[in-house]
């Protein structure tokens, strides 16, 4: 049984293009709402979303970590917190370091897959660098590639979005279906 409060996103035309295809088909008409399931319909928990706008400051990386962890805990996906928090912070770090302007952090859970998107105002797409053994940096995208199921970039009218996806298991709706 899911007892989460819905996360609401206003969907203008630009946001609708960023909505994952499955969610766009079913729920991204004007608002995306996290669906709570009852005992008869645990599949109603297939879509959840949350978004935050962060300033281009180094402290935004810390804020992003807390926001990702907090939202996943609210949604009941505690087992995904550590990896999702790490990967989101890598993407936000890149946006703060290499782009100008506000950073948009968005989380989606669609049918048991977490998608994290970080948007910024730069048109420059990230490039994964091979870090030398003694380099202190250049490992962020390598971590994202290694720990996520998929990742990529999308150019937008206003900049770019860098995203990753990771499968989730054992969340509130899966438990409701198993024990319902």
Automatic annotation (TrEMBL):
Residues 1-26 are annotated as: Disordered. It comes from the Bacteria. InterPro entries: Anti-sigma-factor_SerPK, HATPase_C_sf. Residues 1-19 have a biased composition (Basic and acidic residues). Coiled coil: none annotated. This is ATP-binding protein. It comes from Nonomuraea terrae.
């Amino acid at each position: 049984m899911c007892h989460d409060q819905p996360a609401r996103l206003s969907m203008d035309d630009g946001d609708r293009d960023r909505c994952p295809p499955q969610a766009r088909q079913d729920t991204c008409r004007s608002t995306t709402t996290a669906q709570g399931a009852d005992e008869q319909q645990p599949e109603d928990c297939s879509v959840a979303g949350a978004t935050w706008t962060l300033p281009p400051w180094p402290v935004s990386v810390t804020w992003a970590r807390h926001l990702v962890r907090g939202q996943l805990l609210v949604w009941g996906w505690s087992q995904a917190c550590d990896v999702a928090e790490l990967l989101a912070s890598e993407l936000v770090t890149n946006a703060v370091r290499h782009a100008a302007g506000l950073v948009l952090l968005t989380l989606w859970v669609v049918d048991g897959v977490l998608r994290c998107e970080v948007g910024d105002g730069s048109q420059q797409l990230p490039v994964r660098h091979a870090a030398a053994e003694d380099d202190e940096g250049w490992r962020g995208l390598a971590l994202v590639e290694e720990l996520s199921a998929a990742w990529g970039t999308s150019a937008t009218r206003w900049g770019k979005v860098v995203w990753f996806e990771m499968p989730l298991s054992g969340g509130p709706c899966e438990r409701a279906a198993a024990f319902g």
